[in-house]
Amino acid sequence: MPSKRHGEILRLLHEEGTVTIASLADRLGVSLETVRRDVKPLTSDGSILKMHGAVGLPSIAGEAPFERRMRENADAKRAIARMVAATIRDGESIMLDTGTTTSFLARELLGHRRLTVVTNSSDIARTLATVNGNKVYMAGGELRSDSGAAFGVSAIEFVSRFSVGHAVISTGAVDAVTGVMDYDLEEAEFARMVLSRGQRSLVITDHTKFGRQGLVQVCGLDGFSELATDRPPPRAIAAALGDAGARLSIASSESAV
């Protein structure tokens, strides 16, 4: 049985990158202690990496390059983006951090007019600038080569001057206990500032991010007003969202068509 579970653990990690110990126990139908015993030989031989409360593959313990991530779960991200875009009206203001799902959202907003957009993402700025009477403000700072986004003190100070109707971030990990997390300190700090600038604060993420553990906390589940995703989250996360007073919105598969 352990060898069969080893194969299942590796399959899940190849699909999702990182998975929490608690999520593995739930999916495999075994105790937390059994999962810990199962992962021990896999970590010893270098097949997987042990993190705080989670495990991951050595090659994808961090986030993949931006272009590759744009292709991952594209239909789910597109469905989420289309659902969220439908809640934004012409002439409204929106702040977007860098991320694949927020980039999909920018593309879904191409049918809108006279938007005021604040972002640190050159991809999002290029997508929405100079079309339909939009006004786009892009944060300055050091541009990352992997994402084409600006980070650092200058970027945070820039967006802190704005107050928008919709503040939207995408994220790499959502957990019932640790909340919304990212893999990079500067990205987490920027995302935290974005959420604080909106009358409506929205986290958008596909279902594969549930149960993952990032490296840096962005905020608890009480740090935003709404989470938009493509599938119902695990019971623990759904319950924690309810306790935090955050609204849960789930995109239908038809939204991606």
Strand content: 15-25%
- Share of residues in helices: 25-40%
Largest sheet: 7 strands, parallel
Distance between the termini: 41 Å
Fold-level CATH name of the largest domain: Rossmann fold
Task: Report the structural category.
Answer: alpha/beta
Give the SSE string: HEHHEEHHEHEHEEEHEEEHEEEHE
Q: Could you give the count of β-strands?
A: 15
Radius of gyration: 19 Å
Overall mean pLDDT score? 90
CATH A-level architecture of the largest domain: 3-Layer(aba) Sandwich
Q: Order of strands across the biggest sheet?
A: 6-5-4-9-12-14-15
The structural domain count equals 2
The top level CATH class name of the largest domain: Alpha Beta
Which SSEs are present, and which pair or pack?
Blueprint: H1 2-16, E1 18-20, H2 21-28, H3 32-44, E2 49-51, E3 54-56, H4 66-71, H5 74-85, E4 93-96, H6 100-108, E5 116-119, H7 122-128, E6 135-138, E7 142-143, E8 150-151, H8 153-159, E9 164-170, E10 173-175, E11 179-182, H9 185-196, E12 198-204, E13 216-219, E14 226-229, H10 235-244, E15 247-250
Parallel strand pairs: 4-5, 4-9, 5-6, 9-12, 12-14, 14-15
Antiparallel strand pairs: 1-3, 2-3, 7-8, 10-11, 11-13
Explain how this protein is built.
- This protein is α/β, with parallel strands linked by helices.
- It folds into two domains: 59 residues, Orthogonal Bundle (Arc Repressor Mutant, subunit A); 191 residues, Rossmann fold.
- The chain has ten helices and 15 strands.
- Strands 6-5-4-9-12-14-15 form a seven-stranded parallel β-sheet, sandwiched between helices. Strands 1-3-2 form a three-stranded antiparallel β-sheet. Strands 10-11-13 form a three-stranded antiparallel β-sheet.
- A hairpin with a 2-residue loop joins strand 2 and strand 3.
- The longest helix has 15 residues.
- 43% of the residues are buried.
